[in-house]
Specification:
- This protein is an alpha+beta fold and 729 residues long.
- It is built from 22 helices and 16 strands.
- It folds into 5 domains: 63 residues, no CATH class; 123 residues, Galactose-binding domain-like (Jelly Rolls, Sandwich); 55 residues, no CATH class; 102 residues; 345 residues, no CATH class.
- The strands form 5 sheets. Strands 2, 5, 7, 8, 9 and 11 form a 6-stranded antiparallel beta sheet that branches.
Length: 729
């Protein structure tokens, strides 16, 4: 009858158009006790409680339905729609991949989305997945075009999770085919998840069109009404004024410390009247006491002393931070926690600056001119970079590690940058920061060479070659850090003798040679073949301009001789080996990173989440021997994978603006020392880019601090008032 036909058609429509809806209930089986209720016309039973013919018609229809595949929902491995090879084992835990025999399975489903529920952990296994004999559209691809899913968990912890393998399929029947490689005794396959997404494109188009028409109509009415137009203009003016006020307040709060930092007249005059050696010596002794003392009370007392000393001489605080940059891996234990000396000194310097501003905001000193801070393009770039990095936390899957990297590699280096920018520095103080940085790098080289002579703390390659790692965990980090300091020492070593004493120039030359030796003993190919040559050549070009071809020729000859001598240690014969070895793994790492970026182009995977995304999803099966890669070994891919396209854009803007500052300064300065510092730090940035093509660039504490210090020092050279420089050196 008509009621049966109408109801069955409703069932069909709901099944075809709303398969995602889950359980649906047919209303009005037996409506109410009120016999006059009009809903009785739609009831399945009569008022006497007997079933109408529609009941049997619905039963007949439902019994005739034959499912072509698993419907929307969660399905166990023993589902009738799953077909496993004969060697698979089953239990309450799920299905276990066989060690021998057929490791394939097929699962038929009806829907637009499909996922596999898997048990992941600290084991190696790979699922190769196809949907209707095509690669799954939510999984990365191998070089052969196969889509795959790694079962190693990102953090190596045991977990059960749904892996989404395909989405936006056409509505209807599909077959997911899975071939497993390894993973036996793990009960890896827990189930399947099927979803159906309704087609809402028509609704979206209609909604967007309606909104646009509404906005256009409202705009037309507003613009043609005098009162409304006047009100809008007044509102815009009001908001504009408030926006300017808010911007002024924000920047004022950010840099308010610079307004009142002067030399307080009532501070101990010892540090002003005496030679620079006294405050430097006391600060150094306090720092060593803090780090070396096994007693908490002495360490805390030393920290308090450092806080006072940093408040009296903020420039020494900045120099001390520059000195300890490479030693962040040797923290100080306090309160059952460990704290990096770099981090502690940065926070002490910040606290001392704030305290100085509060205590002596109304004091004026004639010993140094006020520092007038103006937000530069580099400042804006650093600020935007910090904001983008902070925002990436919201998209990170491993939030805890992302927050740690935000603190130690983004916020604290930017604080160091801000402290250098807002602290009034004269010429001697600016040179001191650079010198202390070189001293820190020299200590790294001395420790490394000493260890190499003794044969301790070395890493042996597969070929038996011993590589120096000094204070770092990897020899490559030696090449990365010393590669940033090397061009600075070189640029300072060739300053004309009339501006630097022989002893100072000898110190820079000695530092250069020892750092070069340490880099060679690290056998870092990225440093020796890319970073150092380009940095050294750039020093020559900046210094000699068009006449630089002679020093470049000499440098090139010496470089080729060194490469020839050390070619066995540098494993030159393996550079072009794309089937095994470092080059093979690096190329596969870049391929995996490109897949990662393609899936996260706008936001990236988040700070310090590269390792987890790479190890848990994007590592190519052929690169299984090297799963613990924490960065992309290419500065472009690094910033893209972590922060997305906006993060890369911000760093490109920073580098472009930096070299614009450098170009102007080198052309306009008449001070050979400022010119040497500018050339040194510019060449250090060139090392950042060239060595960063094949290794890390920013995402280590020492490299992040060095990067931010480089940006700040170049601007301080521009902003330093040369007329008040003391006659240093």
């Amino acid at each position: 009858n008509e009621q049966s036909t109408y109801t069955i058609e409703a069932f069909k429509r709901a099944r075809n158009e709303w398969p995602w809806s889950g359980v649906m209930v047919l209303e009005n089986y037996s409506p109410s006790t009120n016999l006059n209720d009009p809903r009785w016309g739609f009831a399945i039973t009569t008022q006497n409680g007997n079933q109408k013919p529609i009941a049997s018609d619905i039963k007949h229809y439902l019994s005739s339905i034959q499912l072509l595949g698993a419907p929307h929902g969660i399905h166990a491995p023993n589902s009738i729609f799953a077909k496993f090879g004969k060697n698979w084992k089953f239990s309450d835990l799920g299905a276990d991949i066989p060690q021998f025999g057929n490791t394939s399975l097929n699962f038929t489903f009806e829907g637009t989305d499909v996922g596999i529920i898997v048990r992941r952990g600290d084991y190696r296994a790979t699922l190769y997945v196809e949907i209707d004999s095509k690669p799954a559209n939510m999984l990365p691809l191998t070089a052969n075009g196969e889509s795959y899913q790694i079962l190693t968990s990102p953090d190596l912890a045991n977990r059960v999770e749904i892996i989404h393998v395909a989405t936006n399929l056409e509505m209807g029947k599909h077959v997911v085919s899975i071939r497993a490689e390894r993973g036996w005794n793990q009960w890896a396959i827990v189930g399947f998840s099927i979803g159906n997404k309704p087609d809402i494109s028509t609704v979206i188009i209609a909604l967007v069109t309606s909104v646009l028409l509404f906005v256009i109509s409202l705009t037309y009415i507003a613009l043609n009404n005098v009162l409304i137009r006047k009100y809008i203009n007044q509102s815009i003016s009001y908001l504009n004024n408030r926006a300017h006020l808010l911007t002024t307040i924000c920047f004022g709060l950010l840099f308010w410390m610079s307004a009142g930092i002067t030399w307080g007249q009532k501070l101990p005059q010892l540090f002003y009247k005496q030679n620079e050696l006294i405050p430097i010596a006391i600060t150094t002794i306090s720092a060593l006491t803090y780090y070396a003392s096994p007693w908490l009370i002495i360490s805390l007392t030393s920290l308090l002393t450092l806080l006072i000393l940093f408040m009296i001489r903020p420039s020494i605080a900045l120099a001390m931070i520059a000195l300890v940059i490479p030693f962040y891996l040797y923290p100080k234990a306090m309160f059952e926690r460990v704290f990096s000396t770099t981090e502690v000194f940065t926070l002490l310097a910040l606290a001392s600056t704030i305290a100085r501003q509060i205590l002596f905001a109304n004091k004026k000193s004639t010993e140094i001119s006020y520092f007038r801070f103006k937000l530069s393009n580099l400042d804006k770039g650093v600020l935007i970079f910090g904001i983008i990095s902070s925002a990436s936390i919201f998209g990170a899957s491993e939030v805890k590690v992302a927050l740690t990297e935000l603190r130690v590699i983004i916020i604290e280096p930017i604080l160091f940058y801000i402290l250098i920018r807002i602290t009034p520095l004269n010429k001697k103080e600016l040179i001191r920061i650079s010198d202390y940085f070189i001293v820190g790098a020299l200590l790294v080289a001395v420790i490394g060479v000493y260890q190499y002579i003794l044969g301790v703390n070395l890493i042996a390659t597969d070929d038996g070659i011993l590589r120096m790692r000094s204070v770092f965990g990897s020899p490559n980090n030696v090449g990365l850090f010393l590669g940033r300091a090397l061009p600075i020492s070189m640029a300072m070593a060739i300053v004309p003798s009339s501006y630097f004493s022989r002893m100072r120039r000898t110190f820079y030359a000695f530092a250069f040679l020892l750092m070069l030796t340490a880099i060679l003993l690290s056998f870092s190919r990225g440093a020796i073949l890319l970073g150092v040559p380009f940095a050294v050549i750039s020093v020559a070009i900046y210094y000699y301009g068009k006449k630089s071809y002679v020093p470049i020729f000499i440098i090139s000859i010496l470089g080729l001789i060194l490469v020839y001598i050390f070619s066995p240690q540098l494993r030159m014969n393996t550079i072009n080996n794309q089937t095994f070895g470092p080059t093979f793994f690096r190329i596969n790492l870049w391929k995996s990173t490109i897949s990662m970026i393609a899936d996260n182009l706008w936001t990236g995977v988040g700070l310090d989440n590269f390792l987890y995304a790479y190890r848990g999803k994007y590592i190519l099966p052929v690169a299984w021997q090297d799963p613990n890669m924490s960065h992309a070994h290419n500065f472009v891919l690094d910033f893209l994978s972590r922060l997305g396209i906006f993060g890369l854009a911000s760093i490109i803007w920073i580098i472009y603006t930096f070299f614009k500052h450098v170009s102007i300064k080198i052309k306009t300065t008449n001070d050979p020392i400022y010119r040497a510092i500018t050339i040194g730090f510019a060449s250090s940035m060139i090392n950042f880019m060239t060595h960063g093509l094949v290794d890390a660039s920013y995402w280590f504490v020492d490299l992040a601090y060095t990067f931010m210090m480089t940006l700040a020092i170049i601007q301080c050279i521009e902003n330093t008032d040369i007329s008040v420089n003391d006659k240093s050196n």
